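Entry 14. Structure prediction run on the chain below.
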Amino acid sequence: MEQATFGAGCFWGIEAAFRKVPGVAETSVGYCGGHVANPTYEQVCTDTTGHVEVVRVMFDPTEVSYKQLLDLFWGIHDPTQVNRQGPDTGSQYRTVIFAHSEDQSLAAHQSKKALEQSKRFAKAISTTIEEVGDFWLAEDYHQQFFDKRGISSSAH
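Output returned:
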C-alpha cells in the first residue's frame, strides 16, 4: 500500500470521491501543513493554524496509479482558486498536493505542468506541491461524512 494526501476544499466531498476509486483501500480526513499539534476542527476554522483540510488515501499501486489519483484530484475541484472552493473560504481550503516521496513530488509537478499547458483553465493553477508533514486525523464525525448520512456525494 502507498499513501497520497490531497487538499481541495472541504474534505467531505474529496474523501467521498476518492473512496469510489477501485484500488483505494482506505481514506481518512484530517489536517496537514500547519504549526499546531493535534488541532481541532474549530481551531483549523479560525484560519490561524496554517492547516489544510485534507484527505489521506491508502491505495494499492497495482490497482490504481498515483497519476490516476492526480487526474481525479484535478477534476474534482477548481485548482485556480486561492484559499477557497465554492462557498468555503480560508487557507484551510487551499488546493495542495502533499507529496509522500520524491516520485510523488515529480509526478505531481509533471501533472500540474501538463494541466497548465492544456489551457483547460483560463486562470493560473494555484495548487501548491509540498512535502507531507504531520497528518492529524479529523474528528470522527468528519470521517466518511456523506456515507454516514446517506448523502450522495455527487450532489456536492
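The longest strand covers residues 24-32.
Filed with the rest of this week's runs.
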